[in-house]
Amino acid sequence: MFLKVKLPWNVVIPAEKLDANGLMLHKSIVLRLLDDFACKKATKDLGYYLAVTTLVSIGEGKIRSNTGEVLFPVVFSGITFKIYRGEILEGIVHKVLKHGVFLKCGPIESIYLSSAKMPDYKYVQGENPVFLNDKHSKIEKNVSVRFIVIGTKWLEAEREFQALVSLEGDYLGPVS
Amino acid sequence: MSGEEEENAAELKIGEEFLKAKCLMNCEVSLILEHKFEQLQQTSDDPMNQVSQVFEKSLQYVKRFSRYKNPDAVRQVREILSRYQLAEFELCVLGNLCPETVEEAIAMVPSIKTKGRAHDDEAIEKMLNDLSLIKKFE
After folding, report:
1. What is the pTM of this model?
2. Which ipTM was obtained for this model?
3. Per-residue pLDDT tens for A9-31?
4. What domain range is A100 assigned to?
5. Looking at chain A, which residue has its C-alpha nearest residue B90?
6. Any B CB within 8 A of A136 CB
7. CA of A49: how far to CAs of A13, A44, A121, A168, B14, in Å?
8. Helices B53-64 and B26-43: angle between axes, nearest 10 degrees
9. I want to staple A107 with a disulfide (CB 3.0 to 4.6 A). Which of A48, A76, A169, B62 is the partner?
10. Is A165 on the interface with B (CB under 8 A)?
11. Residue A89, SS3 per DSSP
12. Amino acid A38: pLDDT
């Protein structure tokens, strides 16, 4: 699910970027914030950081005595993407393996659908391997699939989420 | 795997802060990200290089999975769904998946049928009808 969040952040501006001209300072703060935000990638609590939408406020700058940098506390709103257990989502198949398929959904690429969680689908080998069921529903590369999330995991080192998903439930499976 | 004891979106157990946080539908995110990307295109020769991977992947995703493209339609979808006392999370799941039948809607958002909530089948049916009308006239 995409979330609209309001976040406090500390923006540090090096002394040489400080300018008596207020407009330039504002620009430096915004650029620095956008940069920091993109580098952050994701957090466990809020998920993936997509975009800053508005800068709500810029607080009083504080000088760091050891470096001369100035720290500005700012508040902004932005968009994040987080995946929840129990949530129903649609994703795109990007890899078909014998024991299951990998899907991507928004910024998340490690979403695993095990063949154990789609019991009516059978693996069919070939140049383009697919999973097929009796009703001729086909799960192959680049197909959209609707699934339910049964588990999520946050990887601190990579700053990434992984998820396990299932097709066990009504109205789940490939969508056209 | 996390999501041990508590978290379960199907029962709307997703943590206090997120029940209050505003959720966004894919079509709304698509409008915002596309607008941002257009702005970048005007100021930079190579806009794809200016955005993070997270941004790029998300933009591709919401473009593919937006049921409504027209900004007016997107606004109307939120307005209509807002009339039905839904949690933000439920509203967005319905707007994203566009279920066609009452049964499908309940399968997608089981929490709308939990005890003490005023959604009978007729109300859900009406809501789905309103949604499909927007799609038709988009």
Report:
1. 0.89
2. 0.90
3. 999 998 887 776 667 888 888 88
4. 88-175
5. A87
6. no
7. 21, 11, 35, 30, 19
8. 130
9. A48
10. no
11. strand
12. 87
Query: Can you give the pLDDT at residue B66?
Result: 95
A109 to chain B: which residues are within 8 Å by CB?
A: 57
* A79 inside 8 A of chain B by CB: yes
- Are A117 and A169 members of one domain? yes
CATH number of the domain encompassing residue A71 = 3.30.1490.120
Is A153–B97 a contact, with Cβ atoms under 8 angstroms apart? no
Comparing alpha-carbon positions, the chain B residue that sits nearest to A3 is B23
Residues of A (80-119) whose Cβ lies below 8 Å from B: 81-82, 84-90, 92, 104-107, 109
Chain A, window 18-57: residues with a beta carbon less than 8 angstroms from a chain B beta carbon: 38, 41-42, 48-51, 53
Q: What is the pLDDT of residues A105-138, one digit of tens each?
A: 999 999 999 999 999 999 999 999 999 999 999 9
Token readout for A87 is 């949530």
Would the CB atoms of B107 and A170 count as touching at under 8 Å? yes
CA distances for B114 relative to A171, B46, B111, B118, angstroms: 19, 50, 5, 9
pLDDT score of B138 more than 90: no
Length of chain B: 138
> What pLDDT shows up at residue B6?
65
Beta partners for A147? A89
Number of domains in chain A: 2
CATH number at residue B117: 1.20.1250.40
Mutation test of the interface with chain B: which of A31, A48, A85, choosing the one with the most B Cβ atoms within 10 A?
Answer: A85
> Which chain B residues have a beta carbon less than 8 Å from that of A164?
1
Last residue of a domain, one of A53, A81, A109: A81
Q: Locate A134 and state its tokens.
A: 């009796």
Pairwise CA distance, residues A132 & A173, whole Å: 11
- Domain encompassing residue B127: 71-137
CATH of the domain at A105: 2.40.50.140
Mean pLDDT, to the nearest integer, of A66-80?
92
- Which of A81, A109, A136 represents a domain boundary (last residue)? A81
In a shared domain, residues A126 and A63 = no
Residue B2 lies in a domain: no
Q: What pLDDT band is residue B50 in, cutting at 50, 70 and 90?
A: confident
